[in-house]
């Protein structure tokens, strides 16, 4: 991973446009190729980012200013997304080998709940079918990626206790997934927040974000788990 602390200006052009005026920020270039722009506020959410596959080109403008150009084309259709970063002053530039990440270790109940829902996705919505568990993204794996009966993509975040942090986590995944034209071919990626119990504040936030909340009966779901019906 490469970490650069610099005074910079960032401009994004693609399906929409966005501008970050000159300020000191952290630029993160991960081993998977993703590029993220962070400020000293806003918690864990980047101000802008480009997910892989993308290409970072470092150059210099006509007036001698350092310029990074990040381009990404998730499919062969349409123009490439472009993230243009002008660096006025670099305060720090370092690289770190983080090694292989073992991934998030969930507690026993939450892990088993995810496994049960992967076996029975239709318990979260009629006609849902599993595409993959731990669907990879540049900012972490989505617990379950499913398809609805119309072929639309549905991202599902599974928690034992549903709180605001879980809704924020799913929101970040949805923002990233909805940049992928392969996932949005049948419409925007929908989100489902599934938990044994969901706090009222989390339900309100989820509703505001267009995320569906589903309360899961863990004991009843365990009764559906018949080992004789498994392939493995």
Beta-strand level of the residues, as a percent range? 35-45%
Secondary structure tally, helices: 4
Uncertain runs: none
Number of strands: 12
Computed Rg: 20 Å
- Overall structural class, as computed from helix and strand content, comes to alpha+beta
Distance between the termini: 37 Å
Largest sheet: 7 strands, antiparallel
Please write the string of helix (H) and strand (E) elements.
Answer: EEEEEEEHEEEHEHEH
Give the averaged pLDDT, no decimals: 88
Question: Helix proportion of residues, in percent?
Answer: 10-25%
Please state how the strands of the largest beta sheet are arranged side by side. Answer: 4-3-2-1-7-6-5
Spatial shape:
elongated
């Amino acid at each position: 991973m490469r970490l650069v602390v610099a005074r910079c200006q960032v401009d994004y052009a693609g399906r929409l446009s966005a501008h970050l005026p000159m300020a000191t920020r952290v630029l993160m270039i991960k081993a998977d190729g993703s590029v993220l722009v962070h400020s000293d506020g806003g918690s864990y959410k980047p101000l802008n980012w480009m997910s892989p596959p993308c290409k970072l080109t470092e150059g210099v403008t006509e007036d001698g200013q350092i310029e990074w150009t990040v381009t990404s084309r998730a499919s062969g259709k349409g123009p490439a997304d472009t993230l243009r970063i002008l660096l006025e002053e670099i305060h720090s530039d370092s690289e770190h080998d983080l090694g292989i990440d073992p991934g998030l270790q969930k507690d026993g109940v939450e892990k088993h709940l995810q496994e049960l829902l992967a076996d029975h996705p239709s318990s979260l919505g009629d006609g849902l079918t599993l595409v993959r568990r731990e669907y990879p993204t540049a900012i972490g794996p989505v617990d379950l990626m499913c398809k609805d009966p119309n072929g639309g993509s549905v991202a599902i975040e599974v928690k034992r206790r549903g709180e605001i942090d879980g809704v924020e986590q799913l929101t970040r995944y949805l923002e990233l997934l909805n940049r992928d034209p392969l996932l949005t071919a049948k419409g925007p990626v929908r989100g489902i927040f599934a938990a044994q119990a969901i706090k009222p504040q989390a339900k309100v936030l989820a509703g505001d974000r267009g995320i569906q909340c589903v309360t899961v009966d863990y004991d009843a779901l365990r009764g559906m788990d018949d080992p004789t019906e498994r392939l493995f």
